[in-house]
Amino acid sequence: MPSVFEKVLVANRGEIALRVIRACRELGVASVAVYSEADARAPHVREADEAVLLGPAPSSESYLKGDRIIEAAKRVGAQAIHPGYGFLSEREWFARAVRDAGLTFIGPPAEAIAAMGSKTAARKLAIAAGTPVVPGTTTALRDADEAADVAERFGYPVLLKAAAGGGGKGMRVVQRREELASALASAQREARNAFGDDAVYVEKYIVGPRHVEIQVLGDQHGTMLHLGERECSIQRRHQKMIEEAPSVAVTPELRARMGEAAVAAARAAGYTNAGTCEFLLDRNGEFYFLEMNTRIQVEHPVTELVMGVDLVQWQLRIAAGERLPFTQEALVPRGWAIECRITSEDPANGFLPSTGRVHYLHVPTGPGVRWDGGIETGSEVTLHYDPMLAKLIVWAPDRPHAIARMHRALLELTIDGVDTSRDFHLRMMENADFRSGDIEIQWLERHLAELAATQPPHESVVRAAIAAVLLSESDRGRRQPTSSAAADASRAAPAGSHWLEVARREALR
Ligand code: MV4
């Protein structure tokens, strides 16, 4: 195996730091973790070959300290830095500073990050590349009259967007001419506060679309390939909850067209390494480029599982100058993969963030199950960082079997000590619309109340198992559990099952 780098610094924490450390180890590359005072005993610190303390818990004093991270990389003799996602991953200045320090940034060139960072610049690039974009402008609006002219041309509703934005900040839907002036003023105010730039442009508002994104991978020798789509419509407030690959709405013919459009946009930006083009896919099968994410994404595993390609290993190999050995024709999705984001949020309480110590963790295993996690028994969940604790990912030959497998894996999962999104995901796997694939970007927000009111059928069985154990343990020798509770218990929690452990813990509370 050709050596990639000797040593790589991983400028992140949690599950993505572990994911990169694993890729390094498989490639024979030494890894260096960085950590905050709050993460001194975190799994990523233990699993790396070396670790460097950055500073206090707040990200602004640790994981966002780019200069300190570059200094640490030089000190320990790392040749490259992997930024993961979030934190410094899409900061043009950081990619540039890494390069200026004589190190390799494992990601796209700083110029490509900059080109895609401005949404209006990205639209211009996409248009020049022949990639379909939503009808609208590519320059900032001067005033409400100009916005009204554009809206008249494309028809209402329209959407005002911040040029420096992305991820939903500074967006306003406008239904009528009368609403335009005040919507423009508030979008500009929000954009100025969030990005220090009040440039706002306008697009036709696409009603009821899916969010479908295309993974691309480009080497430094001119090869740019796509690895098909991910369906990411199950999201709430721009936070994705469930992703899958492929999408029920994408045929091989549409995949080829969207893939070519994504490759063309990436090429136009001078892109290399792993990236993602986000599209809206409307009910008529028309697709529109939205923006490009210039990083490895949270949901990359579903693509890895259906394409049989290790994206993180390829990030390192591409950064080291290797050539991609695949042909586009050979990259055909096989089977179905689903990812559930396990977050420390209470779905029964409006997804309120939950904190505390994980005092018991049981991780699902078995056929077709992958756990990309950043926690272990004993981990402290704080408000300093993102609430995503882990990702549960399954693969199966087709979508119905992948849903059944995810349901089974979620039943095996126990996280005690913090509230998590686990039960929400169980309900989703049982939901008729999800099971038929009849979803779009507004689906989750429209069905939250109804989901919260649904008790998954398995809960009653688990409660019966708990009741049976409670009876047998508290009144040992004097009374046996009722025969029906015992029957439920043995079905739900056969001898040796971790459900018995759950029941005992419940009994001891
Ligand atoms: C849109 C749109 C409808 N029409 N643009 C949200 C964040 C940013 N990535 C762009 N977004 C949208 N742009 C037009 N012209 C709807 C959204 C949108 C959305 C997009 C993807 C995933 C989830 C979303 C949730 C709400 C709105």
Structural class: alpha+beta
Shape: globular
Instruction: Using the coordinates shown, work out and report the CATH topology of the largest domain.
Output: D-amino Acid Aminotransferase, Chain A, domain 1
Major sheet: arrangement of strands: 13-12-9-10-11-14-21-19
The end-to-end distance, rounded to whole angstroms, is 53 Å
Give the biggest sheet: 8 strands, antiparallel
The total of helices stands at 18
Q: Specify the helix fraction band.
A: 25-40%
Question: So, the CATH homologous superfamily of the largest domain?
Answer: ATP-grasp fold, B domain
Mean pLDDT level: 92
Q: What is the highest CATH level, the class of the largest domain?
A: Alpha Beta
Number of extended strands: 22
Rg calc: 24 Å
What topology does this entry show?
Elements lengths: L6 E4 L3 H13 L3 E7 L6 H5 L2 E6 L10 H11 L3 E3 L9 H9 L3 E2 L4 H8 L1 H11 L14 H11 L3 E5 L9 E3 L2 H19 L4 E5 L5 E9 L5 E13 L2 E7 L6 H17 L4 E9 L5 E7 L6 H8 L3 H9 L16 E8 L1 E2 L5 E2 L2 E2 L2 E3 L6 E5 L6 E2 L6 E9 L2 H14 L1 E3 L5 H9 L1 H5 L6 H10 L5 H17 L8 H10 L5 H11 L1
Parallel strand pairs: 1-2, 1-4, 2-3, 4-5
Antiparallel strand pairs: 6-7, 6-8, 9-10, 9-12, 10-11, 11-14, 12-13, 14-21, 15-16, 17-20, 18-22, 19-21
Helix pairs in contact: 4-5, 6-9, 7-8, 12-13, 16-17, 16-18
The protein binds ligand MV4.
